[in-house]
Amino acid sequence: NAGVTQTPKFRILKIGQSMTLQCTQDMNHNYMYWYRQDPGMGLKLIYYSVGAGITDKGEVPNGYNVSRSTTEDFPLRLELAAPSQTSVYFCASSLAEAKAGNTIYFGEGSWLTVV
Amino acid sequence: GQQVMQIPQYQHVQEGEDFTTYCNSSTTLSNIQWYKQRPGGHPVFLIQLVKSGEVKKQKRLTFQFGEAKKNSSLHITATQTTDVGTYFCAGLRGGGADGLTFGKGTHLIIQP
Question: Between A42, A105, A108, which is nearest B103 by CB?
Fold first, then answer.
């Protein structure tokens, strides 16, 4: 199993451009998440999904959109990129709720710079 | 909203010294998870604590969950250079569908 795979690993965007961060998992996990991590900081939840066709906002959803058309894929779309969106983005998944036994598996991260 | 505070933010130790990071929540947690992130890497799950007062050990790492389920600690005995990284605690309120609330992490720097 590859686990959680994110692309691209690095990207530089100009202010106002749009892009999509791709995320796929091959563990048949129902729950998927997008977090962002600013330098030296913890992770903040952007959006999450509890299953195909269902998405919901996390702590910092503004400026982002997601979709979950399949169990495997959970792309994150940035519209009108802003410097404040410069961050490292982590996609993650878990089999079910993050309760006992259901740990969260993270992708390797996508480093995004908006200039 | 729920806040999870971690201290210290940075900790420098000599190799072989012990290390402890503390995690405190503003609300009662249903469980708490600990993750380690190596420099330039992604968070990797270490352990989950569920029961009040629970203590778990993984080799040189000891994890504790407070009696009130509002605080937790991670203690590393005799640190090694491979322990370098950032240690995050992450708390889960009841329900769990909205992911975890992460602390800002403790950056462990080890001097040989």
Answer: A42
CA distance A58 to chain B (A): 7
Q: Which two tokens stand for residue A54?
A: 């269902």
Q: A99, B42: Cβ pair inside 8 Å? A: no
Chain A nearest-CA residue for B51? A100
3-state helix, strand, coil in chain A (%, to 5): 5, 50, 50
pLDDT tens sequence for chain B (112 residues):
567 899 999 999 999 999 999 999 988 888 899 999 999 999 999 999 999 999 999 999 999 999 999 999 999 999 999 999 999 999 875 554 566 788 999 999 998 8
Sole residue written with tokens 């030296």: A40
A35 touches chain B (CB under 8 A): yes
Give residue A84's region: left, alpha or beta (phi > 0; psi -120 to 50).
alpha
